[in-house]
């Protein structure tokens, strides 16, 4: 995995990842259970409020300043140096959820959680990057991110963690990874929307029990 000279030192200081493309990752992400229920109507409502997120406007949407400083600036430089456009739409964001999706969040049981719908339409790409949720780390405890698949996988839809591809998910699958260490990205070259519910928060015993029991199914009302 190549990062610019500017970014490489900073990222490696923040991460325990090996950054060696000769090493084939085999456990870069974890599936930890599945939600079973009907959230199709809620998802359709979410589609009505989704807005385009770019590398340059993603923090403006929150009314915040990117807390990562030089890491963010160098990330954009990487995109420009590779011939990309920081103004290109990388995904569609929405915060519109209903009671079934809220039940998903409640089942994860995290303290101080926040959520968003991360929806990619055809041609959208989030290039390889790393997240740093500093405001979560300062709350104490372990901060963790989950992605919940809201529709079945379609050929051409890709999540990548480290250098391991995640695909063939089923609606309701719960996915997590070591976000503090693992570079990751997403792409959609299918002709279908790729919706996921992203949830970030502080791990509780309830959360850890879910992680430790990856074969469980959670029936939603």
What can you see in these coordinates?
Helix content is 24%, strand content 32%. The chain is globular and about 50 Å long. Helix 1 crosses helix 3. The relative contact order is 0.24. The protein is an alpha+beta fold. It is built from 6 helices and 12 strands. Strand 7 (157-161) and strand 8 (164-166) form a beta hairpin. The model has no long low-confidence stretch (mean pLDDT 88). Strands 2-3-4-11-6-9-1-12 form an 8-stranded mixed beta sheet. It has helices at 5-14, 40-49, 70-81, 99-108, 134-137, 205-212; strands at 29-36, 51-54, 89-94, 111-120, 125-129, 143-149, 157-161, 164-166, 173-177, 184-188, 194-202, 217-219.
Shape, principal axes of CA atoms: globular
The total of beta strands comes to 12
Please bin the fraction of helical residues.
10-25%
Please tell me how large the radius of gyration is. Answer: 17 Å
The largest beta-sheet arranges its strands as: 2-3-4-11-6-9-1-12
Order of helices and strands: HEHEHEHEEHEEEEEEHE
- Helical stretch tally: 6
For this structure, the quaternary state is single chain
Sheet of most strands = 8 strands, mixed
Mean pLDDT score? 88
In short:
This protein has 6 helices and 12 strands. It has helices at 5-14, 40-49, 70-81, 99-108, 134-137, 205-212, and strands spanning 29-36, 51-54, 89-94, 111-120, 125-129, 143-149, 157-161, 164-166, 173-177, 184-188, 194-202, 217-219.
What is the secondary structure topology, with strand pairs?
Layout: H1 5-14, E1 29-36, H2 40-49, E2 51-54, H3 70-81, E3 89-94, H4 99-108, E4 111-120, E5 125-129, H5 134-137, E6 143-149, E7 157-161, E8 164-166, E9 173-177, E10 184-188, E11 194-202, H6 205-212, E12 217-219
Parallel strand pairs: 1-12
Antiparallel strand pairs: 1-9, 2-3, 3-4, 4-11, 5-10, 6-9, 6-11, 7-8, 7-10
Helix pairs in contact: 1-3
């Amino acid at each position: 995995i190549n990062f610019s000279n500017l970014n490489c030192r900073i990222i490696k200081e923040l991460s325990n990842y090996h950054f060696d493309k000769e090493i084939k990752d085999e456990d870069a992400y974890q599936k930890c259970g599945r939600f079973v229920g009907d959230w199709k109507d809620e998802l359709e409502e979410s589609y009505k409020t989704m807005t385009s997120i770019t590398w340059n406007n993603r923090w403006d949407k929150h009314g915040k300043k990117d807390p990562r400083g030089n890491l963010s600036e160098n990330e954009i430089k990487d995109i420009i140096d590779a011939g990309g456009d920081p103004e290109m739409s990388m995904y569609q964001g929405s915060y519109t959820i209903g009671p079934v999706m809220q039940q998903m969040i409640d089942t994860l049981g995290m303290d101080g959680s926040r959520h968003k719908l991360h929806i990619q339409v055809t041609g959208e790409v989030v290039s390889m990057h790393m997240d740093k949720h500093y405001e979560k780390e300062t709350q104490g405890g372990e901060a963790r991110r989950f992605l919940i698949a809201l529709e079945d996988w379609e050929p051409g839809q890709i999540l990548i963690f480290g250098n391991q591809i995640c695909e063939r998910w089923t609606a309701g699958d719960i996915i997590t990874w070591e976000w503090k260490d693992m570079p990751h990205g997403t792409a959609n070259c299918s002709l279908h929307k790729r919706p996921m519910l992203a949830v970030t928060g502080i791990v509780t015993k309830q959360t850890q029990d879910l992680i430790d029991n990856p074969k469980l199914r959670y029936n939603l009302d």
